[in-house]
Design a protein that fits this description.
By secondary structure, the chain is an alpha/beta fold. The protein is built from 18 helices and twelve strands.
């Protein structure tokens, strides 16, 4: 019998970061699409003029004026008005704007919201001005709903393994973990070298699906099949959930949050590794982790080495009365050089693949590793109900890792919950 303590405050700071990353800093398209997504006819943006309004959230909203000013200098006949919208109010404001027909021309859209807003017929299909191959495939797929693209990826992030190389080497591990077995061996090695926990994995709670789902994909799983049917109840899920749970069973990861933030535990050597996005580079550095003691590594490979892709998209609202200028602005923000300027301004990673050839990214060993991982990264299907389905997956993960549910029962529970919620179509 397991002797585990349930907790509702599971790694709260990490959960919040993951939840924001999914929609802002923080999806496989509809899951039912086959072949290239359709796009609307090309729009002539060369003679754009008039005024457009743009909504952007968080740090992006606070700083987008820098790019808007540069765009207006190149397009003197266009006026861009940027409004910063708090993330916690953004979803409802966009919904109300769509319903009232009085929203902005362009808005930043969290990737997990695309299905909902497309089904509300609130955002315009992407014109063929944009070449999907320009973007990372996983990022482009976040814009695809029922076989049609709605919007353009603006910036991206993915998740890598952060690990203490000094502790790993002391524990007999000299190479980055390439497989699931290697990951387990590395966690044991750094624990043998003195870390309290070999790895930090989220034991349920908001956003834990973002840590678990890559293991599901690595085991060969898909969230939905070509018929838009959920496929969570199968051997890949059981295999992934069993592996994930084994770190809790073997005491290699903590069953609840500690008093010290994760970055502090990593810096002082109490936690030997964790999985997270590029924003943690600065956070662990500021926490005092000496650069020679740690690095990042590609997700481990079972059948695949897939990671999660997040970020944010740009969409033009269907009721915009100046779509020519709106799409011209989105084109500008998708230019590789502009994407590098944006990275240098707010550290958002480019969604355009060619931008990664710039020395600002290619010359940084840690960041270039994230660029490599983006070539094998997915996100959940762009369905209107994904947030509800994700919450049920989070709950099952917690019941398995810190409760008494078995993986064999957990996967059918995920499937039953997803089937009950449906896709919202």
């Amino acid at each position: 019998m397991r002797n585990r303590r349930r907790t509702g405050a599971v790694l709260l700071s990490v959960a919040l970061a993951l939840a924001l990353a999914a929609c802002g800093r923080a999806d496989e398209g509809s899951g039912a699409a086959s072949g290239p997504a359709s796009q609307a006819a090309e729009i002539d943006t060369s003679s754009a003029s008039g005024e457009i309004s743009v909504w952007a959230m968080g740090t992006e909203g606070d700083n987008l004026g820098v790019l808007a000013d540069a765009f207006m200098a190149d397009h003197p006949d266009v006026t861009v008005e940027v409004t910063a919208v708090p993330w916690d109010a953004a979803h409802d404001r966009i919904v109300n704007a769509i319903a009232g027909g009085e929203g902005p021309d362009v808005t930043m859209i969290g990737t997990t919201w695309m299905g909902e807003f497309a089904q509300l017929e609130g955002i315009d299909p992407t014109p063929s001005n944009f070449d999907p191959s320009q973007f990372f495939e996983g990022a482009w797929d976040t814009t695809v709903v029922d076989g049609t693209s709605y919007g353009v990826p603006w910036y991206v992030e993915t998740r890598l393994l952060y690990y203490r190389t000094d502790l790993a080497e002391e524990g007999g591990v000299t190479e980055p973990p390439a497989t699931w077995d290697d990951l387990k061996a590395m966690a044991k090695g750094v624990q043998d070298a003195g870390a309290e926990y070999g790895i930090n994995l989220q034991p349920g709670g908001t956003g834990s699906w973002q840590t678990f789902m890559p293991f599901f994909w690595q085991a060969g799983g898909e969230i939905m099949d070509a018929d838009a049917t959920f496929t969570l109840d199968g051997e890949p899920c059981v295999e992934a959930l069993t592996f994930y749970d084994s770190f809790f069973e073997e005491g290699l990861t903590a069953p609840a949050a500690g008093d010290v933030p994760l970055e502090g535990q990593f810096a002082n050597g109490d936690v030997g590794s964790f999985i997270s996005g590029p924003w943690m580079i600065g956070i662990v550095t500021d926490a005092g982790a000496a650069p020679e003691t740690w690095t990042v590594a590609h997700q481990p490979t079972e059948e695949a080495g897939t990671s999660f892709v997040g970020g944010s998209n740009l969409g033009v609202l269907a009721d915009s009365d100046n779509k020519q200028a709106a799409w011209a602005f989105v084109e500008y923000l998708s230019d590789p050089e502009v994407q590098i300027t944006w990275y240098e301004t707010v550290k958002d990673l480019p969604s355009v693949q060619s931008a990664w050839d710039n020395e600002a990214l290619a010359g940084d060993e840690l960041l270039s590793a994230f660029g490599d991982q983006l070539s094998d990264a997915k996100a959940p299907p762009a369905i209107a109900t994904w947030e509800e389905v994700a919450a049920e997956i989070d709950a099952v993960i917690e019941q398995v890792t810190v409760g008494d549910m078995t993986p064999e029962d957990g996967c059918p529970a995920m499937q039953e919950a997803a089937d009950g919620i449906g896709t919202g179509a």
